[in-house]
Write a structure and sequence with these properties.
The complex is a heterotrimer of chains A (about 100), B (about 500) and C (about 625). Chain A has one domain: Helix Hairpins (Orthogonal Bundle), CATH 1.10.287.3510. Helix content of chain A is about 75%, strand content about 0%. Chain A is built from 3 helices and no strands. The model of chain A has no long low-confidence stretch (mean pLDDT about 90). By secondary structure, chain B is mainly alpha-helical. Helix content of chain B is about 75%, strand content about 5%. The longest helix of chain B is centred in the last third of the chain and has 32 residues. Chain B is globular and about 70 Å long. The N and C termini of chain B lie far apart (about 50 Å). The model of chain B has no long low-confidence stretch (mean pLDDT about 90). With about 625 residues, chain C is mainly α. Chain C has 27 helices and 2 strands. Chain C has a two-stranded antiparallel ribbon with strand order 1-2. In chain C, helix 2 packs antiparallel against helix 3, helix 9 runs antiparallel to helix 12 and helix 20 runs parallel beside helix 23. The termini of chain C are far apart. Classes of the chains: A mainly alpha (about 100), B mainly alpha (about 500), C mainly alpha (about 625). Chains B and C meet through helix 11, helix 13, helix 16, helix 17 and helix 19 of B and strand 1, helix 6, helix 7 and helix 26 of C.
Chain lengths: ~100, ~500, ~625
């Protein structure tokens, strides 16, 4: 029997992998992918809670769709920035992208 | 509802700003004329208010009230009494003459007048409003344009001076802001109306705390020693009209705030801290005058003389009786006119000679007799010669202060001797002596340049001979408050 | 109520010259003669009104020192300060009004000739009119405040007139010095009237007199008296604030005659007379006044015998004579002081105008470069001799009677030391005055000059003043009934018994002084150079005016300017230094703190994550703990 806890565990693992990747990957595209992972971990959470706690209303699912839409926008913008940076610098290694530095 | 005089005074410069914004940059003559008209209107209206204020009724008159933020109890409330009315008139006169003093401003004239008028609207607001929230708001409105005006159009170390001035004033206003918010929360009346807040009885501990904050906050503005160094630097760096407004009016916001908010709201606190103010203000008077003597730049001399003269204002405030506070308010008026005259004249000389160093000049009375005459009159006003309004103000302060602080009052009176020394030294070194051919090209003030000199000298002399026009109005504003809140208490507690 | 135009229009007396001042300044500046005529016309009005007042007082005996006529209008009324402007008319005022308007009128007429061709002709007359306005306002004042106001205004006119030749460095220095010295004195005066006001609640002379006579607080009265006396120390050039008066000779000579000899410098004496009750109530204050006056008289005379400049000798002589007047007041005789003030005004104005006449003709001021001027300038020379005889105190000239009365009261009231001082001074006065006259007007020509007698506008005033210098003393001479002393007095009229011995001895003293001067400078029986060389240190000491100017200069240059430079340094480096160090701290914290910002997004992310973890733990900690 798959319980809520299994879903939550999956989601937590997924989130942690995403977080770890976002904080440690050097490639900007990889970081974007990792951010997607974290968002999807959240989606799993939302849907799972709705399924197990309030199956009669679909709040979680609707929220998940919102997140997917936002994630799509974010990836679009993010990739655009990454491409722009690549054109400028011929590199997407985040360690070199420290223009915000003091 | 009758004609909203006070709002008109406040809005005339704002309207001027709006009109100037739509005039092309290159039409600088028209811009100046618009500025002159806008400020001229304020002079006329404040004169009208000055004459029509009903002294037999007293209190706050020409009241206008519009609720602004109901939730916080903020009301757009204007009104004047015997204390603020002279200062409103002072502001109007100084800015009107200031516009004429900057008639030859060519660098970005449009922006200059926009900021100048915005600044003056803020100053008017402070003196006109009877709501503590607006008091603070207008105060900030007055400070910010100053930064730009000095930073862009200034001279001699202007960026430094502009930054210093703004930082000092903002630090000061931060102290005052704490006190304002504190009062609002403490009373819990959900109102910023100064009248209502004055009638509230605060507990002594809170009074001491709040008055201390206000003393420091407004002390930055006055400026009280040792918080004064922004002002000479600011005076020197600012362009002529801004110096006039700055020394003539902006410093008075501090004195006005101390009287209106400090003393009247927190009489007990004022009693407690008064001796400290009295001691510091003597430092102002004597030290300011001594430092002025050592200056080599004309504007620095006047800048430090302002520090010295504002010490008298503080002394009047610290003595906490009707006469001394009358004197303090009158001294604010008198010093405003006098120092504006000084700066107008120095600005005039600087524009033509491109130097302000005392050592460069000599015998200038040959080439510029009118400027020399004006300068002598301003100098005599500065050293408190009878027949000029400053004397009456200083004399009232001395008599009032002598009742309370004998020794300090004597020290303060010694200030008139030191002032005589440095003023007459400057007059002698700059204007008297043999003709200096180096300055033969200089033109005496003529035409439009004479407007500020004539008006300001006229005010000094007229009110010097007939001080009752000014002093009795001030007395009318000050006396009821003092009778009600200050007459029963004894100064001291600190030492 | 007495009907008199003068009394009814008393306010016109000071106002007429004020109107003249305004008219000249704003309208007539370009028209030289019109300016002069306006000023003179205004003086004629004032003089005529003053004459009318004097006449009324002489004929109608209802106005006396003890029952003056007072008129006043409120000027300023605040809670705690009530000030009036008004007129107090008694014989003292009337006498002073007469002196001031009379001398002013003559000096103005004289100036038309003296200032002829000066580019500042109109300006000169406008300043003179301003001065007369201030002086008359001072004279009629009915309260200390008004007195102070006009006291300062005469100081202003004096400042403007000393600096009339503003293009001369020496003039620009002198007027500054005059103003500042007087300021120092006014500092004391102002404190004096403030404490009087706070103690008695009024500035009014009459009300104060009532308060003072019923007060028994001797310490306070002494203090107030001495503080008020500081004012006259400055204005009337008493030691140690006398330094400005000799330098004030930089002004045009008519000014020296009018302001720095006859009228303004006498204002201090007038103030002492006006506020006499204050001083009279305290023996200590009186003693201070008397001895300071006596000392100044002698001190100034010792300097005068060594000076070389025509006008400076007269200036020191003025100081000395003012000392006499102050001493007279101090020993308790208002009458003697005012009497000497009046006669002195005549003969000293006369001598200054003579000096002006000589300087106008010769363009020289050093008496050692003159000599034999009498031959070319008979009128001026005669007038000068008359003035000299008057000041030396030879009967029946004006100075004799007044000086004699001072000596008399000093002796009568038991001030023997002062009597001796005054007698010595009288000897010195006769000597230096005739040294001046012999050197300048007689003997051989000592330098190249061409002299000529001055125009009638200058000589006519001289002659009028000469007449007054001869006969003016009779108004107070002891054999005259209802003379000066019957009108101007304090308390009750007091007629000191004439003392033939004293009169004789003082005449002898004066003659001895003149004789000595004759021996030295005409007969040359005694060589002045020899004596000067023999007593070189003393001579130098006196010639350099006891080095008091040098002392003040040193004090100002070293102490005042030094302190000022020190404070300026403090302001720059300590007061501003603290502000700058606060700014520096803020900047430094910012500069160091910015290294936290690595610019790497992932670092930021890590920090955010860590922060979230901490916050969650912090918030959730109690809950988790509760579960366990």
């Amino acid at each position: 029997m798959i319980t809520l806890n299994h879903y939550l565990l999956l989601s937590a693992i997924l989130f942690c992998i995403g977080l770890y990747g976002a904080l440690s990957k050097r490639n900007a595209v990889a970081i974007l992918i990792c951010i997607e992972l974290m968002l999807n971990a959240v989606n799993i959470n939302l849907v799972a809670f709705t399924k197990f706690l309030t199956p009669e209303v679909l709040t979680g699912q609707i929220f998940a769709i919102f997140v997917i839409v936002v994630a799509a926008c974010e990836v679009a913008v993010g990739l655009a920035i990454v491409i722009a940076i690549y054109r400028d610098r011929s590199s997407v290694v985040v360690e070199n992208l420290d223009w915000l530095k003091w | 509802m009758s004609f909203p005089i006070l709002s008109s005074i406040l809005l005339a410069p704002v309207l001027g700003v709006l009109i100037i914004l739509f005039i092309p940059e290159k039409e600088d003559k028209i811009i100046k004329i618009v500025a002159a008209i806008a400020t001229g209107i304020t002079v006329l209206l404040s004169l009208y208010a000055f004459v029509n204020y009903d002294q037999s009724v007293g209190g706050i008159q020409f009241v206008e009230q519009i609720p602004w933020i109901d939730e916080l109890g903020v009301v757009y409330a204007l009104g004047v009494d015997g204390i603020s009315l002279p200062l409103v008139l002072l502001t109007a006169i100084v800015i009107f003459t200031g516009v004429f003093a900057s008639w030859d401003m060519e660098k970005r004239a449009k922006e200059f007048f926009v900021f100048l008028l915005a600044l003056v609207a803020g100053v008017f607001g402070v003196f006109l409003t009877t709501d503590l929230f607006f008091f603070y708001l207008f105060f900030e409105v007055a400070v910010i344009p100053m930064y730009i005006l000095i930073g862009v159009w200034g001279s001699t170390n202007k960026e430094y001076a502009a930054m210093k001035l703004t930082l000092y004033l903002l630090v000061g206003s931060a102290f005052a802001l704490i006190a304002v918010i504190g009062v609002y929360l403490y009373t819990g009346l959900n109102t910023f109306d100064i009248q209502t807040l004055t009638q509230y009885t605060y507990d002594v501990g809170f009074q001491k705390f709040a008055f201390f904050l206000l003393m420091i906050g407004f002390g930055f503005l006055v400026p009280m020693w040792p918080l004064h160094t922004w002002s000479p630097d600011g005076h020197v760096a600012a362009p002529t009209a801004v110096s006039m407004l700055h020394a003539g009016v902006l410093m008075k916001l501090g004195g006005y705030g101390l009287v209106r908010v400090g003393i009247f709201l927190f009489p007990e606190g004022a009693k407690f801290w008064a001796p400290l103010i009295a001691v510091l203000c003597i430092v102002n008077v004597v030290y300011g005058a001594m430092v002025a003597m050592a200056q080599k730049d004309l504007k620095f001399v006047i800048g430090y003389s302002s520090v010295s003269h504002m010490g008298y204002v503080l002394l009047g405030i610290a003595a906490l009786n009707t006469l001394s506070i009358n004197g303090a308010v009158a001294q604010m008026f008198a010093h405003g006119i006098m120092t504006a005259l000084f700066f107008a004249l120095v600005g005039n000389v600087y524009n033509k000679a491109h130097t302000r160093m005392i050592a460069d000049f000599g015998g200038l009375a040959h080439q510029m007799p009118r400027v020399a005459t004006g300068f002598v009159i301003a100098g005599l006003a500065s050293l408190g010669l009878p027949g000029l309004v400053n004397f009456v103000a200083e004399f009232s302060i001395f008599v009032g202060a002598f009742r309370v602080y004998q020794v300090l009052a004597i020290l303060a009176i010694s200030g008139i001797v030191i002032t005589a020394v440095y003023v007459l030294r400057v007059v002698q070194k700059v204007f008297f002596g043999p003709r200096n051919p180096r300055w033969d090209e200089l033109q005496d003030a003529k035409g439009i340049e004479l407007v500020p000199i004539v008006i300001l000298c006229g005010v000094l002399i007229f009110l010097g001979f007939f001080p009752s026009f000014l002093m009795e109005l001030i007395n009318n504003g000050v006396d009821p408050f003092v009778q009600e809140y200050l007459s029963t208490l004894k100064i001291g507690g600190m030492f | 109520m007495i009907e008199s135009i003068g009394l009814n229009y008393i306010w016109l007396v000071p106002l007429a010259p004020l109107v003249a001042f305004i008219l000249i300044t704003f309208l007539f500046k370009r028209f030289k003669m019109l300016s002069a005529l306006t000023a003179i016309f205004s003086m004629v009005i004032s003089f005529w009104l003053s004459l009318d007042i004097v006449k009324t007082i002489l004929t109608d005996h209802s106005i006396t020192m003890n029952s003056p006529l007072e008129k006043a209008v409120p000027w300023l009324n605040m809670n705690g300060l009530f000030i009036e402007m008004g007129a107090l008319i008694d014989p003292l005022t009337a006498g002073m009004l007469f002196v001031v308007t009379f001398i002013s009128l003559l000096v103005m007429v004289y100036s038309v000739g003296y200032m002829h061709g000066d580019p500042g002709f109109s300006r000169f007359f406008s300043y003179l009119a301003l001065f007369v306005f201030s002086m008359l306002g001072l004279v009629i004042a009915n309260n200390y405040f008004q007195m102070f106001v006009f006291w300062e205004l005469v100081g202003l006119s004096s400042y403007l007139l000393i600096g009339f030749y503003f293009y001369k460095d020496s003039a620009a220095q002198a007027n500054k010095k005059a103003f500042i010295t007087n300021r120092v004195a006014d500092f004391g005066f102002m404190i004096g009237i403030i404490i009087l006001y706070l103690y008695f609640g009024t500035f009014n002379f009459a009300e104060l007199a009532k308060g003072i006579s019923s007060s028994s607080d001797l310490a306070f009265l002494t203090l107030a008296g001495i503080l008020v006396f500081i004012g006259p120390i400055g204005k009337s050039g008493q030691f140690p604030l006398h330094v400005w008066l000799p330098d004030a000779m930089e002004g045009p000579t008519p000014v020296s005659a009018l302001i720095h000899a006859a009228t303004m410098v006498a204002a201090g004496v007038y103030l002492l007379a006006r506020g006499f009750i204050l001083f009279a109530s305290s023996t200590t204050a009186m003693t201070v006044v008397a001895y300071l006056g006596g000392w100044t008289a002698l001190f100034a005379a010792t300097i005068a015998i060594t000076q070389r400049d025509f006008k400076r000798i007269l200036a020191f002589s003025t100081l000395s004579q003012l000392g006499y007047m102050v001493m007279a007041i101090g020993v308790g005789s208002l009458t003697a002081g005012m009497f000497h003030l009046t006669t002195h005004a005549f003969f000293k104005a006369l001598m200054f105008l003579c000096a002006g006449s000589v300087i106008h003709a010769l363009h020289k001021q050093d008496i050692f470069e003159m000599g034999g001027v009498f031959k070319e300038m008979k009128i001026t020379g005669t007038c000068m001799v008359i003035g000299g005889l008057a000041i030396a105190g030879i009967p029946p000239f004006a100075g004799f009677w007044s000086k004699d009365e001072i000596l008399l009261v000093a002796k009568e009231n038991g001030y023997t030391l002062l009597y001796v001082l005054a007698a010595v001074t009288a000897f010195l006065t006769a000597f230096y005055m005739f040294r001046l006259i012999f050197l300048a007007f007689f003997g051989e020509k000592r330098s190249d000059y061409h002299a000529h007698e001055s125009p009638w506008t200058m000589t006519v005033p001289l002659m009028i003043l000469a007449v007054f210098s001869i006969f003016g003393g009779f108004i107070g001479a002891p054999f005259v009934e209802h003379g000066f002393a019957s009108y101007v007095y304090f308390g009750e009229p007091h007629h000191p018994k004439p003392d033939i011995m004293l009169m004789g001895s003082s005449t002898l003293i004066a003659l001895a002084g003149i004789f000595l001067a004759w021996l030295v400078y005409i007969k040359k029986a005694i060589s002045a150079e020899k004596i000067a060389n023999q007593f070189a240190p003393i001579y130098k000491f006196l010639y350099n005016k006891w080095y008091i100017d040098e002392l003040y200069q040193w004090f100002f240059d070293k102490i005042v300017l030094g302190l000022s430079a020190l404070l300026n340094w403090c302001d720059r480096y300590i007061v501003d230094g603290i502000a700058h160090s606060i700014a520096w701290m803020t900047r430094t914290i910012g500069a160091k703190g910015r290294y936290v910002h690595t610019g790497s997004l992932q670092t930021y992310g890590l920090v955010i994550f860590a922060a979230v973890v901490v916050i969650v733990l912090f918030l959730a900690g109690p809950v988790v703990g509760g579960v366990q």
